[in-house]
Amino acid sequence: MKLRGLLTLAMAAQVVVTAAALFASYAVTGPREFGIAQLVALLASTAVAVLLVRICTRAIERSEEKRAVTQSAELARARSDSAQMTQAVIKTALDAFIQIDGSGTVLEWSFQAEALTGWTRKEALGADVVDLIVAKPLRAAFRQRMARLVPELSDTPSGLRFELTLIHRNGEVILAEASSTVLRLGERAIVNTFVRDITQKRAAEEQLVQSQKMEAVGQLTGGIAHEFNNMLTVITGTIEILAEAVKDTPPLATITKLISEAADRGAALTSSLLSFARKQALQPAEIDVNELLEELTKLLLATFDKKIEIVTRLDGNVWLAFADRGQLSSALLNLAINARDAMLDGGRLMLTTRNVVFGVREAIAVGAGYAGDYVEIEIADTGTGIPQAILERIFDPFFSTKEVGKGTGLGLSMVFGFVKQSGGGIKVTSEEGRGTVFTIYLPKAEASALRPAGYDDRKIVGGKETVLCVEDDHDARQYVTVQLESLGYKVIPAANATEALAIAADGRSFDLLFTDIVMAGGMNGRELAEQMVATRPSLRVLFTSGYAYDSLHVQGRATMGAPLLRKPYRKAELARMLRRCLDTAVDSAGDAIPTPYSVQADVEGFLRRQAAKDNGTTRSRK
Description:
This protein has 622 residues and is of the alpha/beta class. 50% of the residues lie in helices and 19% in strands. Strand 16, helix 16 (549-553) and strand 17 (564-566) form a beta-alpha-beta unit.
């Protein structure tokens, strides 16, 4: 029964008892006198009232006790549920949870905190958090920072977010992001902190920034090299004409030779720039990297100081790599020379090969193009090493730590560009005084791309065909026109794609389209060739470019087999490429008619591999 009903019943009972007692007393003595009988009635009524009060009081007390017990149980259950929920949140959180008091003593240490720092919960509870996660030289400064942290958190109810550097139990440095709040329990301050490892995130951000920087520098470098190659094309071509004219005048002949050599150095420079910019024309093929390194080792042994020991650890089962052999050879030689220069007092140069299989994460870590099979080539030295302050800049073009005149700063840039354009990756680790390790990852070759190259070695001849020459650079167009006419060809010059299409629309006949790829205006050379071949299937096409990125990576289907003549080029190279295009047999639909070719290159490669296997078997038997 509710308290209100109980009180109502008690009051009603009291009224009934009092009325009954008075009625009985008056019945005995009469209504006009107030005597002993009435007094006894009132005392009896009072006694009943006292009894009822005690009964109600006890009932109320029992009710209050029961309510208090119920509320206490509910509060305890709520506290238990809240604690369990808090523990569940802490246990399932992706971030580590650390709870400390105002002096830095650890009160709580989650499972994720164990994984992050290497310290178990049992070891951490009661310990000084600074001693656990902060390097010794930084502990004093960190404690001063913590002393200011509690007041700052008290003034900021939403908490603070900040970055800090932690030390794992094994000494590994961890870059972390922390979110802290303070809880006041009387005079006591409790600091709750969630900590997240952002080491990989920051490394990925830095890699992205570096990649974007290299891409921007590469675009600028490639554009400069392209324009420079246009000028070099004119220089290298016209100097041949001058050299022929003054060959009987020794002083002038010497001058033309100097100009020609300077032009060749300029061409080599632009080639390095294009390699860094990943815009050079590569000729990838299957490469036996072990064979290439063995050849390189012989060269190094013959040229390096005897104080440098050269050691090879070549995996006999290494896959064939798919890359440009000449560019790879140049890249490895560059790295070997850098290693030599870092070991002036002698040391060890180690060349290693092995097979690796990358998942997505591993491929991203080394900057490789995709997950899959790669051939790893490692070049390690015991030289002076590279300071960490400049390690991130070593692939920048023209950056060099060598003395003026002892390096162009393009060697590592070329290596970087070649590897990236080949779809591979590269990483470098170095420690001052302990040496440097460069590791190159090249895609595994899936199918043979080897073809004999004897066709271009034939005698240089001209022709009588008509060539539509499309070149947007005026000087280069004029030079090419003169060279083509000197070879006997009829030339129709055009300054851009629009002019070339107008010539074709007029019905003028020509046998070959010789076009630059990168041209000003709305249409490039590849698109021009696609449009022309669509209406003239038997038209032959020869591309040229100062940087030949587009021609190899985004060619259309109709011009897939069109060769490329890289700028700058000599008259002899131009003549050979023209005949290569014009002498290829095609049918009425413009498709190439297969012609017999020598399989000697394939046979020689097979015999070399067999000989290597036989030698390996013989050595193992010994």
